[in-house]
Write a structure and sequence with these properties.
6-stranded mixed beta sheet, globular, 6 helices, 33% helix, Hypothetical Protein, Haloacid Dehalogenase-like Hydrolase, Chain: A, domain 2, magnesium ion binding, 180 residues
């Protein structure tokens, strides 16, 4: 398919996320960088394998260090994988460290996403609809997790699924059946 729009996490943000993850006890978190379909991690482990085996993402490959190009960066997003408890601490630390330089969201309690500033599923849908010349009021979307909220608020009608987080249900116009 055609790439319609792309934005990358700045190299400065990548450096700060790598540094924050290094302060966590060894083995407690895994960090994955998405360079398009090329997923990179510092070490392949059960958590990185789960991205491929359970969520059908491309298999992450181990790299010596994350790429640091220019300030535009090379990664579309970073994932920090770990327990919900550990990620709550990491998220708090990153929120303070990164401020408005990046967006933090979670699809699941054990996956923290670090996105370029101003990026979200809502922004992605907005860019796609502009490219296709479709009015957002003509669009519907479905969601269940925190990373869906901006998308549900942007489209004409946003649906939460029955098993959605309460904050997602609050953001939606209507609800439907579970996606489990």
């Amino acid at each position: 398919g055609e790439l319609v729009w792309e934005q990358c996490v700045s190299s400065s943000v990548v450096e700060r996320v790598v540094a924050a993850c290094a302060t966590v006890e060894a083995g407690e978190v895994s960090l994955v960088g998405y360079d398009g379909d090329d997923l990179q991690c510092l070490a392949v482990d059960e958590r990185t394998d789960e991205l491929h085996l359970k969520y059908y993402e491309p298999r992450p490959r181990a790299v010596e260090k994350f790429e640091m190009a220019d300030d535009e960066g090379v990664y579309n997003k970073l994932l920090v994988l770990g327990s919900a408890e550990t990620l709550a601490t990491v998220r708090s630390q990153l929120a303070e460290e990164l401020g408005n330089d990046a967006a933090l969201t979670q699809a699941m309690p054990h996956i923290l996403e670090i996105l370029p500033r101003g990026c979200s599923k809502g922004r992605g849908v907005e860019e796609l609809l502009m490219h296709l010349e479709i009015d957002e009021e003509s669009c519907i979307a479905f969601g269940d997790a925190e990373n869906d909220i901006e998308m549900l608020e942007f489209v004409g009608t946003g649906f939460s699924v029955a098993n959605a987080l309460p904050s997602v249900t609050d953001a939606a116009d209507a609800s439907t059946l579970s996606n489990d």
